[in-house]
């Protein structure tokens, strides 16, 4: 798994490449939480280049959403319509805990409107 971080318009974009599984999920959660300044309005987790997420990854995404929610901020997931991750999001009901968009730009826009 590779993580690239950028910030713009008060939103941090964390772009993930590779799988999010038992071996990488906790590292992802720690790295993203550490890189998120208190001044950020929200977080976009860009899963465009992720093809597999196991239950450890789902847990970390729920935890990130909860941590952000405590301070009144939101998590948005960028997942293309054609991605197999979309099915996982529906099955686990992640869309009830996060904002869901098709790409980072759309998610950033969604976060700026909340």
Distance between the termini: 30 Å
Number of strands: 5
Q: What's the tally of helices?
A: 4
Percent helix: 25-40%
The whole-number mean of residue pLDDT values reads 95
Residue ranges: pLDDT <50 for 5 or more in a row? none
Output the helix-strand order: EEHEHEHEH
Query: How would a textbook summarize the main sheet?
Result: 5 strands, mixed
Strand order of the largest sheet: 1-2-3-4-5
Alpha carbon gyration radius: 12 Å
Shape: globular
The secondary structure category is: alpha/beta
Beta fraction: 25-35%
Describe it for me?
This protein is an alpha/beta fold and 114 residues long. The chain is 39% helix and 26% strand. Strands 1-2-3-4-5 form a five-stranded mixed β-sheet, sandwiched between helices. α3 (85-92) links the parallel β4 and β5 (99-101). α1 (25-35) packs parallel to α2 (55-70). The radius of gyration is 12 Å and the shape is globular. The mean pLDDT is 95.
């Amino acid at each position: 798994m590779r993580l690239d971080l950028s910030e713009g318009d008060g939103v941090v974009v964390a772009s993930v490449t590779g799988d999010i599984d038992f071996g990488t999920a906790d590292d992802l959660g720690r790295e993203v939480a550490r890189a998120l300044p208190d001044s950020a309005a929200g977080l976009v987790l860009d899963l465009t280049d992720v093809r597999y997420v196991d239950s450890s990854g789902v847990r970390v995404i729920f935890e990130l959403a909860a941590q952000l929610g405590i301070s009144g901020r939101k998590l948005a997931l960028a997942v293309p319509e054609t991605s197999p991750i979309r099915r996982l999001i529906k099955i686990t009901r992640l869309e009830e805990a996060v904002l869901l968009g098709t790409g980072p730009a759309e998610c950033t826009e969604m976060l700026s409107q909340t």
